[in-house]
Amino acid sequence: MIYGVDTSYANGTCNWDQAAKDERVRWVYSRACYGSNPADDDGATLIAAHDGCKRNGIPFSAYMFWLAWQPGVDQAANFLDAANGVFGSNSPIVDVEEGSGLYGWGASLEARIANLAACLNAIQAKLGQPIIYTNRDTWETYFGGTDAFSGHRFISADYSSPAGSPVAIQGVKNIVAQQFSDGSGQLPIQGLSKPDNNVDRDVLIGNDLAVLLR
User: What is the pTM of this model?
Assistant: First the structure.
């Protein structure tokens, strides 16, 4: 299995040269922004993750947290600005989960799907097709298990299934990786985690990291 990690400002200041020696850090994606809110950009943390991974030859990508109540095009524009020059060689990732609807899910299912599509399309025009990060409950509950994005690659957040064997998600055809741990109860990865906030862990489905390339 090829293991990776999902990082953000919440994991603190990381020693990437140290983390790169860990077999659980073979690919990385790091948060760039939270919707279209520039005040919530990860800034220096993203740059440090990108530079540390590049220095150590670790495949890297930037991701954004999508918000249902903000226009998708605006969110994409903020992501492209926040991650300017530090996107990495892997495809960008758009994080869609329960927290995406913290202040509402929009007027309708159709509007929600259109909003996400607008965000993805704007990013794709600049960087190639993004990967969608989600989980079964979010996708089947708030997106009705739509197959409107079946041509996309997905990362499934699935903490109850064995690593590398995520459950199927309605409307999703291509799960390329699984986030199998949200840090709870997992051993911290030296140089990446701070007390009480272990890094999220992922595993590739299959053995070819090229599936993540943009």
Answer: 0.97
